[in-house]
Write a structure and sequence with these properties.
The protein is of the alpha+beta class. 30% of the residues lie in helices and 14% in strands.
Length: 483
């Protein structure tokens, strides 16, 4: 750029490429100076509140912010909510009798609760059930007094990403005695719409659509709402901090009995290829998980598979394996995924799996772990056959935070959890416009262990304190953005 300026001053003729480079650099510099001038005092200005109606979504893609935003909310109620997030401590393995706080499954409530349907899209399809909270449990963790003190709070959503985005919070007040599972609408669509076969572990997109058998319900995972003191300091931002202080706080929330030194997760993932326990595959969900994995691996077979055979022989064998996996999947799909597999049939299926060792041996431990986790989330009839050590490994994946060993160095793993109150994550969106006068009613992002799959998307539901206090959940707004 300097050479270009000198040449211009001397009256020399410049090649076109140099002129373009000079122009680009100049405009880039001007843009940067304008950005700096506009944004240097951004931390100290009051951002305007957006006018998005209930259910509106702002979608975008960007990088997570690392800069500090030091201005705290001015409303004391908003501030107290920000400093006392409520996280959801997942219970794994799920108990036989679960409470009224859980993700997925069938909502439990009074007979007068009506399953909500879409309002902003064509048709009249029922919304997917996401989660519910026992309000008595919530009230015990709420320092603001804003959340309902009794009854049950529900969230239903449209699980197809994009605008318009339908959602509905419903509060059913009063005693919870006599609650029962709601009748599932017969026209409830498959979870995640056309993407369901890609996002449900026991489904395959490499099967004809009419045979994919994608479920209409998310897996059920009970949790305990738990508040903790968010480690704030003068340098903290208004957005969730993934730093060590917050991670250590989550670790203490998860491990009330004392923080362990290391988790057994890595050892399980390195499991050698072998039948992991006598009943495996133990239910039809596990059969479908394995068949789906075979179909996925054989879409583009590794070059080293059957390397000693001719290319024609290789392709013929791959097609036989694909056909067998598709037939096994189709047979399993005629049964409930949670139904147990008879031991004799399980033995026969295992013999077939053994013949595919070359296809399945890489990350075999992760595949077995996924089968076990799916079974727990479905309330499998064969859950009693699952070994305690594998259940323990799965339980680690559900923790808010865990400590791992990385080359003899302690490694803390504590991703931003789903939470009520507290700071929101910073993603490409406009949630910062609402932080002065609204509290974070709920933030949801992808949680593979419990079957919540939004990709890089984050759902942030915001509501004014007065609206929350008056149970005006229809006034909640949604910022739906993506990293």
């Amino acid at each position: 750029m300097l050479a270009t300026i000198k040449a211009a001053v001397r009256g020399q003729t410049l090649p076109p490429v140099n002129v373009l480079v000079f122009a680009a650099a100049t405009f880039g510099l001007i843009a940067a100076l304008l950005d700096w001038a506009l944004l240097r005092d951004r931390r100290n200005i009051v951002l305007p509140v957006g006018s998005a109606p209930s259910g509106a979504a702002a979608a975008g893609v960007g990088e997570k912010a690392t800069e500090s935003r030091e201005t705290p909310p001015t409303d004391p109620v908003v501030e107290s909510a920000r400093l006392r997030p409520i996280v959801f401590r997942e219970i794994c393995p799920p108990p036989v009798a679960t409470g009224l706080s859980f993700y997925g499954g069938v909502p439990v409530g009074p007979a007068q609760l009506t399953w909500p349907r879409v309002r902003n899209k064509p048709g009249d399809a029922p919304l997917s059930f996401i989660m519910q909270w026992d309000c008595t449990e919530l009230a015990g963790q709420d320092v603001t007094g804003l959340l309902p003190q009794n009854g049950v709070l529900y969230l239903f959503c449209d699980l197809t990403w994009g605008e318009p985005f339908d959602f509905q919070f419903i509060h059913m007040p009063g005693p919870i005695n006599g609650s029962q599972e709601l009748p599932v609408p017969p026209d409830l669509p498959p979870v995640y719409g056309d993407d369901g076969a890609y996002k449900v572990p026991y489904c395959s997109p490499w099967i004809a659509k009419d045979g994919q058998n994608v479920p209409c319900l998310l897996p059920k995972w009970p949790f305990s709402p738990t508040a903790f003191a968010y480690p704030a300091s003068s340098n903290d931002a208004l957005f969730w901090n993934d730093g060590e202080a917050v991670g250590e706080a989550l670790l203490r929330v998860e491990h009330t009995e004392g923080v362990p030194q290391v988790t057994p997760r890595d050892e399980a993932r390195q499991m050698p290829f072998a039948r992991p326990f006598a009943a495996f595959p133990h239910d039809y969900a596990a059969v479908r998980v394995v068949a789906s994995k075979v179909l996925d691996q054989l879409r583009r077979p590794a070059s080293w598979l059957l390397r000693e055979a001719s290319e024609e022989q290789r392709q013929a064998k791959f097609q036989i394996w694909r056909d067998e996996a598709a037939a096994l999947y189709a047979s399993a799909a005629t049964h409930s995924p949670a139904a147990g597999v008879a031991q004799s049939l399980s033995d026969d299926i295992w013999k077939w799996i053994e013949g595919l060792e070359a296809v399945l041996m890489l990350r075999w431990g992760a595949l077995v772990e996924e089968c076990v986790n799916v079974s727990l989330g479905l309330g499998s009839e064969a859950a009693g056959a699952l070994p305690a050590d594998l259940v323990g490994v799965c339980a680690e994946n559900h923790k808010l935070a865990s400590v791992r060993s990385l080359k003899e160095k302690r490694s803390l793993h504590a991703p931003c959890p789903n939470h009520m109150f507290g700071p929101p994550s910073f993603v490409q969106g406009h949630v910062e416009e609402h932080l002065e006068e609204r509290v974070l009613l709920l933030e949801l992002s992808s949680r593979e262990p419990i079957g919540l799959e939004f990709g890089e998307g984050v759902l942030q539901f915001m509501i004014r304190p007065a609206e929350l206090r008056d149970r005006q959940f229809d006034k909640a707004i949604l910022v739906a953005s993506a990293y």
